[in-house]
Amino acid sequence: MNPLPAAKALDNFFFEARAKILDLAAFLDRIERGDKAEEVGRDPRLAKVRRALQTLLDNGDRRAEQVQQIFSLDYDPHWEKPKPHY
Amino acid sequence: MNYIDPHIHMISRVTDDYQRMAYAGCAAVTEPAFWAGFDRGSAEGFRDYFRHLTEVEPKRAAQFNIRHYSWLCINAKEAENVALSRDVIALIPEYLKKPNVLGIGEIGLNKNTRNEAIVFQEHVDLAMKTNELMLIHTPHLEDKLKGTRMIIDMLKGDRRVKPERVLIDHVEEHTVRFAMEGGFWCGMTLYPTTKCTPARAVDILERYGTDRIMANSAGDWGKSDPLAVPELIQEMKRRGHSDAVIRKVVYENPLAFFTQCSRWQDWPREETAKAPHGNGTSVRAKRAKATA
């Protein structure tokens, strides 16, 4: 499956991306306008939003995966697994 | 174009939705057992639910010439109650004889607790003893990556499990690789806010290819769209993907997985157009070939 040529992808998705960035900007404004905005500013969820926004400025083609990882809990490969009953 | 919705909870949808899905080309749906919106008080509540999934919904779907299949289990949310779960698991074999049942599902994890893992493993034990396919729910939001990896740990640690007989559902950008590399089938759920949008689902297809992957609406009583698979079809068309490639994702792949069920009864299919050479190859595979 070939992805769209870059120029075509920009043409096709520019307005959708613009709308989503505006929504994000308005979301952050909404929080700042509310009571006790300073307290909420320390909420770990907002820290993740800021990290995710930083990721968008990186180069490469794995930003969506990286943003997903920012919003994910850590995995411990040594967790205690139940035993199958053969 | 005909399509199959491989994961939709029709019990929570009105009959008009069946009609609109039929108008949009829906040939078949499969309905996994899930949470009722409240924790059920006894195993008998599940007996009624299993009757609904195996008797009522197939008749409702048939009014619109849509074939209805189902999957049976106690869902991960109620699996925190291990005693209730064991009572429900004991009920399942009786319903596995029903002609529309495809296997055990949607089993999995919700908050990745020890009890959920125990009940998941006991469902896998049942599926292995009865030679059933498995449809697996992966957790929501921040729990998804951890839970998906825990589920794959359990499946890979069980030498009886054949990955090609397991569908790992609700994969997203950060989990699809683990399921694919494990040899499992993958399902992408198209939701307006959580899970995948149609555009991101097509991005995943472009990156990972169209082998062993399908898309579903997981329509239920929450904010969800029973016509999400047709929306994916439109998004693929918008990007210039061929009808043959689209049909593979929305029709042939689900059938290829489901027809492994020993109770499967074949029905006349829409004729398959041949995919142009290489059209189902992912960008990643092409890059790997170019650098080899």
Write structural notes for this entry:
The complex is a heterodimer of chains A (86) and B (292). Chain A is built from four helices and no strands. With 86 residues, chain A is an all-alpha fold. Chain A folds into two domains: 1-33; 36-71, no CATH class. In chain A, helix 3 packs antiparallel against helix 4 (63-70). The longest helix of chain A has 28 residues, at 6-33. The relative contact order of chain A is 0.06. Chain B is an alpha/beta fold and 292 residues long. Chain B is globular, with a radius of gyration of 18 Å. Residues 275-279 of chain B have low confidence and may be disordered. Classes of the chains: A mainly alpha (86), B alpha/beta (292). Chain A binds chain B through residues 1-4, 12-13, 16, 64-65, 68-69, 71-75, 77, 79-86, and chain B through 112, 114, 117-118, 120-122, 124-125, 128, 141-146, 149-150, 153-154, 157-158, 160, 172-174, 199-200, 203, 205-206, 209-210, 238-241, 245, 279-283.
